[in-house]
Amino acid sequence: MNGGGIIEIVPNLFFGVKVRHAANVKGVSVWSPRDDGGFQEALAKNPVMMIVDLASSFPWIPWVGEAKRRMLVLKVVAFAGHAEVEKKRHALEAGVDQCFVRAEFEAILPYLMDWAVSPHLEDSCRESLPPGAVKGVELFNQRDFFEQHEVLELTWKAEHRPVRDLYQGILLVGVGCYQIQRGNYEGALKQLAGGCAYLEPFQPSCQGVDVERLLTEAKNILEEVNRLGPEGLAVFDPARFPKIAVKA
C-alpha cells in the first residue's frame, strides 16, 4: 500500500464503499474505527488524512480535535448535506480543514486519494514557475480558460514531482470557470471542487503563486455556483472569475 493511509469515519454504506474503492484504486490503506480504542489504534498507524461523514453518530468532534492537537493527521476532510450548516460550522471549529456537500465530496474523492499518496511537498515550491505554467497562468488571467487547460496540461504531464498537482489544481479551477461559461452546472461543481482539493496542500504560496488567494476565490465561486443552481448559472457574474497573483 502507498502513502500513510487514511482514517474513515463514514458509517453510511454508500459513501463508505465509495471511499474504500477510491482508496483501493490508489493503493491507499484505510482504517475504519468505530470506538475510541479502534481510533487510538488507527492513529498509531500514522495516517495522513481523516475523512468524516458529519451525519455519523460516532464521536468525531473529539477524535478530530485529538488528531489535530497531537499533529498526527495532516488533513481532515468532512462532508454533509446542503442544509447541515450548523454541523459544518462545528466541524470547522473542531479542526476540519475542508467541508464539502455530498455531491462535491463524491466528485473529489480521486483527488483526495492522489493527495494521500504524496502528501509531503519538497523544495520545488521554492523554485520559479516554469515557462509553460507562466504561459498557462497568463491565459487563465485573460479568461481564456480553454487554452490555459491545453498549455498547463503539457506542464503537468512533464513534471513528475508532487508539485505537478499545483499545475493540475490551477488547470481544474480554470476548467471549472470554462464550464460556468458553457452553462454546465455539474461540470463546474466537479472541476472547481477538484481544483480546490489539489491546491489545498500548496498554501499559502508555491513557486510564486498566491495559492491561498486563488483557493479562497475558487471556493467563493463554488459557493456561488451552488447558490445559483443549474437554472441560475446563466446570471453568474464573470467579474467573480479569479485572477492568479504571481510574485516575481
Main pleated sheet: 5 strands, parallel
Distance between the termini: 40 Å
Radius of gyration: 18 Å
Low-confidence stretches: none
Number of strands: 7
How would you characterize this protein structure?
- By secondary structure, this protein is α/β, with parallel strands linked by helices.
- The chain has two domains: 2-117, Rossmann fold (3-Layer(aba) Sandwich), CATH 3.40.50.2300; 123-240, TTHA0068-like (Hyaluronidase domain-like).
- 56% of the residues lie in helices and 12% in strands.
- It is built from ten helices and seven strands.
- It has helices spanning 13-26, 36-43, 60-69, 85-94, 102-117, 131-141, 145-158, 164-182, 185-199, 211-232; strands at residues 2-9, 28-31, 49-53, 75-80, 98-101, 205-206, 209-210.
- A five-stranded parallel beta sheet has the order 2-1-3-4-5, sandwiched between helices. A two-stranded antiparallel ribbon has the order 6-7.
- α3 links the parallel β3 and β4.
- The radius of gyration is 18 Å and the shape is globular.
- The protein starts with a strand and ends in a 16-residue tail after the last helix.
- 42% of the residues are buried.
- The model has no long low-confidence stretch (mean pLDDT 89).
